[in-house]
């Protein structure tokens, strides 16, 4: 891997210079297949919850509105279910074999969203008020815990050796996801975070569960550990690319597309990749940004900052090179993910679909 030097001796990876072309129609079909095949089982799992947790969860998934009326809300991109079904096919099994894994991973993912929204104070997700905003913090915590328990139930009910192996991978990924969230929160209170620390945090918070999604179906389909581990490597680097794009959208994303406030990550003082890379770059913009962020950490008026003040910080991040570096890092992680696929023997049409999903991750707008 080629590198360039940042400040204080840090090594900053370089990356390919162009985004891949995306077969939008093919990716849309893959995502829709994952959503269509997993949603009935997901709904059945949520129906097991005691009231009012069942309706709170249904609101979170977009199936009902805040008044309990049926709704057709945005249930998310469904990347993880799509990966779990493809994972089963990569092992030579039918996509249906991956459905319990797809549902389990989606339950864990949404457990983390419910808790993250509360911890981050996010009031909007997918263009709607978040669960804690509508139903209160206690319900957000309880329903999140319940979804995690359901995820393990769904797998263990299969009663097979493969289900036990899949559950171990899921619980390990969940523990890493929680590690990543703890790191993320702790970094908000530090003046400086290194690029390496940020990548480790994002590998835990996002990469771990995507890695699990793209191996869990294969495990349920009887794949050996070497195959599952290599698919996990693809998922891990895909997760890092995914999070790098999320970090860009968290500062410069269009609120109409992302469903979040303008400058969302800056409002939460997140040490995301663009911020960390800008601070590591050196130069006048980097120095000025560091001074502002240090002052922000001690400010009692941060919550009342104007749009112009957040825009000024975003402009300094961009001037220092944080935006460009993060774009390049997304593409570099994308390339490493695709290299991992070359080490797995699988049907060529499945490989092409995994490549298409990876391409989608680095060019998405929400």
From TrEMBL:
The UniProt record lists the keyword Repeat: no
Signal peptide residues on this chain, from the entry's feature table: none
Key words of the record: Magnesium, Metal-binding, Transferase
Stored SUPFAM superfamilies: Terpenoid synthases
InterPro entries cross-referenced by the UniProt entry: Isoprenoid_synthase_dom_sf, Polyprenyl_synt, Polyprenyl_synt_CS
Any one GO MF annotation of this record: metal ion binding
Single Gene Ontology BP annotation: isoprenoid biosynthetic process
Region: Disordered, residue numbers: 1-21
Coiled coil: none
Family as reported in the entry's similarity comment: Belongs to the FPP/GGPP synthase family.
Official protein name in the record: Polyprenyl synthetase family protein
Organism annotation: Streptomyces marianii
Phylogenetic lineage: Bacteria, Bacillati, Actinomycetota, Actinomycetes, Kitasatosporales
């Amino acid at each position: 891997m080629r590198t360039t030097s940042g400040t204080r001796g840090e090594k900053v990876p370089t990356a390919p210079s162009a985004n891949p072309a995306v077969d939008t129609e093919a990716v849309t079909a893959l995502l829709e297949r994952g959503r269509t095949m997993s949603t009935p089982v997901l709904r059945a799992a949520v129906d097991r919850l005691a009231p009012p947790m069942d309706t709170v969860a249904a609101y979170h998934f977009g199936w009902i509105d805040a008044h309990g009326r049926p709704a057709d809300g945005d249930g998310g991109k469904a990347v993880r279910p799509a990966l779990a079904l493809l994972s089963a096919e990569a092992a030579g099994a039918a996509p249906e074999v991956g459905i319990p894994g797809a549902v389990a991973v989606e339950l864990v993912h949404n457990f983390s969203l419910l808790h993250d929204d509360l911890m981050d104070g996010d009031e909007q997700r997918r263009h709607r008020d978040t669960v804690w905003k509508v139903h209160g913090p206690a319900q957000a915590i309880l329903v999140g815990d319940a979804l995690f328990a359901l995820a393990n139930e769904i797998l263990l009910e299969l009663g097979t050796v493969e289900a036990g192996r899949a559950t171990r991978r899921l619980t390990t990924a969940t523990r890493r996801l929680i590690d990543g969230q703890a790191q993320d929160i702790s970094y908000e209170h530090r003046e400086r975070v290194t690029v390496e620390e940020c990548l480790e945090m994002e590998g835990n918070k996002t990469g771990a569960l995507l890695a699990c999604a793209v191996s869990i179906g294969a495990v349920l389909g009887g794949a050996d550990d070497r195959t599952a581990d290599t698919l996990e490597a693809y998922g891990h680097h895909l997760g890092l690319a995914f999070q790098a794009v999320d970090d860009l959208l968290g500062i410069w994303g269009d609120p109409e597309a992302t469903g979040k406030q303008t400058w969302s990550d800056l409002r939460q003082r997140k040490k995301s990749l663009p911020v960390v890379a800008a601070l590591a770059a050196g130069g006048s913009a980097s120095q000025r940004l560091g001074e502002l962020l240090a002052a922000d950490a001690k400010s009692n008026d941060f919550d009342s900052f104007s749009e112009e003040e957040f825009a000024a910080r975003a402009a300094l991040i961009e001037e220092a090179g944080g935006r460009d570096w993060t774009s390049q890092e997304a593409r570099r992680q994308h390339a490493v993910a695709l290299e991992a696929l070359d080490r797995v023997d699988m049907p060529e049409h499945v490989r092409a679909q995994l490549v298409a999903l990876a391409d989608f991750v680095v060019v998405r707008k929400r």
